[in-house]
Design goal:
about 180 residues, Spore Coat Polysaccharide Biosynthesis Protein SpsA, Chain A, about 25% strand
Protein backbone atom coordinates (compact mmCIF):
# COMPACT_ATOMS: atom_id res chain seq x y z
CA UNK A 1 0.00 0.00 0.00
CA UNK A 2 1.24 3.47 -0.91
CA UNK A 3 -0.09 6.46 1.03
CA UNK A 4 0.12 10.08 0.05
CA UNK A 5 1.19 12.48 2.78
CA UNK A 6 0.10 15.99 1.91
CA UNK A 7 1.96 18.63 3.90
CA UNK A 8 -0.37 21.62 4.30
CA UNK A 9 0.41 22.94 7.77
CA UNK A 10 2.35 26.16 7.21
CA UNK A 11 1.19 29.71 7.83
CA UNK A 12 2.14 30.87 4.33
CA UNK A 13 3.65 34.09 5.62
CA UNK A 14 4.91 35.21 2.20
CA UNK A 15 1.53 34.29 0.71
CA UNK A 16 -0.27 36.26 3.41
CA UNK A 17 -2.39 33.26 4.42
CA UNK A 18 -2.04 29.53 5.03
CA UNK A 19 -1.56 27.85 1.66
CA UNK A 20 -4.11 25.21 2.65
CA UNK A 21 -6.69 28.00 2.28
CA UNK A 22 -5.58 29.24 -1.14
CA UNK A 23 -8.18 28.62 -3.84
CA UNK A 24 -8.70 24.88 -4.41
CA UNK A 25 -5.10 23.84 -3.70
CA UNK A 26 -5.93 21.57 -0.77
CA UNK A 27 -8.62 19.50 -2.47
CA UNK A 28 -6.75 19.52 -5.78
CA UNK A 29 -3.58 18.20 -4.13
CA UNK A 30 -5.50 15.32 -2.54
CA UNK A 31 -6.94 14.42 -5.94
CA UNK A 32 -3.48 14.61 -7.54
CA UNK A 33 -2.12 12.08 -5.03
CA UNK A 34 -5.09 9.71 -5.41
CA UNK A 35 -5.14 9.89 -9.21
CA UNK A 36 -1.35 9.50 -9.26
CA UNK A 37 -1.50 6.09 -7.60
CA UNK A 38 -1.75 6.59 -3.85
CA UNK A 39 -4.10 4.12 -2.20
CA UNK A 40 -4.85 6.54 0.63
CA UNK A 41 -4.05 10.17 1.43
CA UNK A 42 -3.28 11.69 4.81
CA UNK A 43 -3.43 15.49 5.08
CA UNK A 44 -1.19 17.19 7.64
CA UNK A 45 -2.65 20.49 8.83
CA UNK A 46 -1.40 23.09 11.29
CA UNK A 47 -2.07 26.82 10.81
CA UNK A 48 -5.81 27.48 10.48
CA UNK A 49 -6.42 23.74 10.85
CA UNK A 50 -10.13 24.07 11.61
CA UNK A 51 -10.77 26.32 8.61
CA UNK A 52 -8.74 24.04 6.32
CA UNK A 53 -10.47 20.92 7.64
CA UNK A 54 -13.83 22.44 6.73
CA UNK A 55 -12.72 22.53 3.07
CA UNK A 56 -11.92 18.82 2.95
CA UNK A 57 -14.14 16.12 1.54
CA UNK A 58 -16.09 14.18 4.14
CA UNK A 59 -14.08 11.28 5.56
CA UNK A 60 -10.70 12.67 4.52
CA UNK A 61 -7.95 11.46 6.88
CA UNK A 62 -6.30 14.38 8.71
CA UNK A 63 -3.67 14.80 11.36
CA UNK A 64 -2.68 18.12 12.94
CA UNK A 65 0.95 19.01 13.58
CA UNK A 66 0.66 20.99 16.81
CA UNK A 67 4.24 22.25 16.42
CA UNK A 68 3.74 23.18 12.75
CA UNK A 69 5.36 26.58 13.30
CA UNK A 70 8.73 24.93 13.94
CA UNK A 71 8.96 24.08 10.23
CA UNK A 72 8.16 21.49 7.60
CA UNK A 73 10.08 18.84 9.53
CA UNK A 74 7.36 18.79 12.21
CA UNK A 75 4.66 18.14 9.59
CA UNK A 76 6.69 15.41 7.94
CA UNK A 77 7.34 13.66 11.26
CA UNK A 78 3.68 13.79 12.29
CA UNK A 79 2.54 12.56 8.87
CA UNK A 80 4.87 9.57 8.73
CA UNK A 81 4.16 8.62 12.34
CA UNK A 82 0.39 8.63 11.66
CA UNK A 83 0.52 6.13 8.79
CA UNK A 84 -0.71 2.65 9.54
CA UNK A 85 1.33 -0.55 9.63
CA UNK A 86 0.00 -1.69 6.26
CA UNK A 87 1.59 1.23 4.41
CA UNK A 88 4.75 0.22 2.57
CA UNK A 89 5.71 3.62 1.19
CA UNK A 90 4.71 7.27 1.53
CA UNK A 91 4.54 9.81 -1.28
CA UNK A 92 5.24 13.17 0.34
CA UNK A 93 3.75 16.12 -1.52
CA UNK A 94 3.34 19.83 -0.78
CA UNK A 95 0.10 21.79 -1.05
CA UNK A 96 1.82 24.77 -2.72
CA UNK A 97 2.77 23.01 -5.96
CA UNK A 98 -0.33 23.73 -8.08
CA UNK A 99 1.32 22.83 -11.39
CA UNK A 100 2.31 19.34 -10.26
CA UNK A 101 -0.32 16.91 -11.50
CA UNK A 102 -1.21 13.28 -11.12
CA UNK A 103 1.10 12.42 -14.02
CA UNK A 104 4.12 13.50 -11.97
CA UNK A 105 2.98 11.49 -8.94
CA UNK A 106 2.34 8.46 -11.15
CA UNK A 107 5.81 8.67 -12.66
CA UNK A 108 7.46 8.81 -9.23
CA UNK A 109 5.25 6.04 -7.83
CA UNK A 110 5.88 3.75 -10.79
CA UNK A 111 9.65 4.09 -10.70
CA UNK A 112 11.50 0.90 -9.94
CA UNK A 113 13.41 2.15 -6.93
CA UNK A 114 15.30 -0.66 -5.26
CA UNK A 115 16.49 1.80 -2.61
CA UNK A 116 12.99 2.70 -1.45
CA UNK A 117 13.67 6.38 -2.17
CA UNK A 118 12.62 8.28 -5.30
CA UNK A 119 12.28 11.96 -5.95
CA UNK A 120 10.86 14.09 -8.73
CA UNK A 121 13.31 16.43 -10.41
CA UNK A 122 12.56 19.34 -12.69
CA UNK A 123 15.32 20.05 -15.22
CA UNK A 124 17.61 18.17 -12.84
CA UNK A 125 16.61 20.16 -9.73
CA UNK A 126 15.23 17.94 -6.92
CA UNK A 127 11.68 18.66 -5.79
CA UNK A 128 8.43 16.97 -4.80
CA UNK A 129 6.81 14.54 -4.65
CA UNK A 130 9.21 12.25 -2.81
CA UNK A 131 8.62 8.51 -2.38
CA UNK A 132 9.92 7.20 0.95
CA UNK A 133 9.86 3.48 1.65
CA UNK A 134 8.95 2.37 5.16
CA UNK A 135 12.49 1.21 5.99
CA UNK A 136 13.59 4.87 5.75
CA UNK A 137 10.88 6.41 7.93
CA UNK A 138 12.75 6.22 11.24
CA UNK A 139 15.79 7.93 9.73
CA UNK A 140 13.68 10.58 8.02
CA UNK A 141 11.71 11.25 11.21
CA UNK A 142 14.95 11.65 13.16
CA UNK A 143 16.47 13.99 10.57
CA UNK A 144 13.33 16.08 9.92
CA UNK A 145 13.95 19.28 11.84
CA UNK A 146 13.11 22.87 11.02
CA UNK A 147 12.29 23.63 7.41
CA UNK A 148 14.64 20.98 6.04
CA UNK A 149 12.11 18.17 5.99
CA UNK A 150 13.83 15.08 4.59
CA UNK A 151 16.51 17.02 2.66
CA UNK A 152 19.40 16.06 4.95
CA UNK A 153 18.43 12.40 4.99
CA UNK A 154 17.94 12.25 1.23
CA UNK A 155 21.31 13.92 0.73
CA UNK A 156 23.11 11.04 2.43
CA UNK A 157 21.22 8.15 0.82
CA UNK A 158 20.85 6.66 -2.62
CA UNK A 159 17.77 8.32 -4.11
CA UNK A 160 16.38 7.48 -7.53
CA UNK A 161 15.89 10.80 -9.32
CA UNK A 162 12.86 10.83 -11.61
CA UNK A 163 12.92 13.60 -14.21
CA UNK A 164 9.50 15.25 -14.48
CA UNK A 165 10.40 18.58 -16.06
CA UNK A 166 8.48 17.60 -19.18
CA UNK A 167 5.31 17.41 -17.07
CA UNK A 168 5.56 20.36 -14.67
CA UNK A 169 7.79 23.11 -13.32
CA UNK A 170 7.70 21.87 -9.74
CA UNK A 171 8.02 25.39 -8.28
CA UNK A 172 6.30 26.20 -5.03
CA UNK A 173 4.12 29.29 -5.12
CA UNK A 174 4.81 31.81 -2.37
CA UNK A 175 2.96 34.85 -3.65
CA UNK A 176 -0.41 35.42 -5.29
Amino acid sequence: MIAGVLLAAGAGRRMGMPKALVDDWLVRSIEVLREGGCDDVLVVLGAAADEARARLPEGQRVVVADDWDSGMGASLRVGLEALGPDVEAAVVHLVDLPDVGADVVARVVSTDSTTGLARATYAGVPGHPVLIGRRHWAGVIEAAVGDQGARGYLGTHDVRLVECGDLAGGNDVDRR
